[in-house]
């Protein structure tokens, strides 16, 4: 799974890149709304979450390692966990080891 799927937990996080790009943000919201969970968005090489994001925000492709974590932080772990059950189970399992 690409970590970019988690960014679809709240596509409004992309306002951080450029709040004026409302059409692009709405396009990402529409993609997210087509799936029960963002974890299911990863359905092919050309339709992978990162490819969908780059189609709307081309600059994201050049700076994924920087933008990705910043956007995830803006969403917050609580929201990502609530929208991504597989991720939540995995993280809960890790937490149980502590």
Strands, helices and their partners?
Layout: H1 4-7, H2 15-18, H3 22-33, H4 49-56, H5 58-62, H6 64-75, H7 77-83, H8 85-96
Number of helices: 8
Run of helices and strands:
HHHHHHHH
Rg result = 13 Å
Secondary-structure-based class equals mainly alpha
Indicate the mean pLDDT.
93
What gap, in angstroms, lies between the N and C termini? 25 Å
Total DSSP E strands: 0
Shape: globular
Low-confidence stretches: none
DSSP helix fraction: 55-70%
The largest β sheet comes out as: none
Overall number of structural domains: 1
Report the sheet-strand fraction: under 5%
Quick structural summary:
With 98 residues, the chain is mainly alpha-helical. It has helices spanning 4-7, 15-18, 22-33, 49-56, 58-62, 64-75, 77-83, 85-96. It is globular.
Please characterize this protein's 3D structure.
There is one protein chain. This protein has eight helices and no strands. The chain has one domain (4-96). Helix 7 (77-83) packs across helix 8 (85-96). The protein is mainly α and 98 residues long. The longest helix is centred in the N-terminal third of the chain and has 12 residues, at 22-33. The chain has helices spanning 4-7, 15-18, 22-33, 49-56, 58-62, 64-75, 77-83, 85-96.
Keyword list:
0% strand, 98 residues, single chain, mainly alpha, globular
């Amino acid at each position: 799974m690409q970590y970019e799927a988690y960014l679809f937990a709240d596509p409004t996080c992309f306002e951080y890149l450029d709040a004026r790009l409302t059409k692009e943000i709405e396009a990402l919201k529409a993609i997210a709304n087509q799936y029960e969970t963002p974890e299911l968005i990863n359905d092919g090489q050309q339709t992978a979450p990162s490819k969908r994001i780059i189609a709307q925000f081309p600059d994201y492709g050049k700076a994924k390692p920087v933008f990705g974590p910043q956007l995830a932080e803006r969403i917050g772990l609580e929201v990502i966990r609530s929208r991504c059950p597989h991720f939540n189970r995995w993280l809960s399992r890790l937490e149980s080891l502590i």
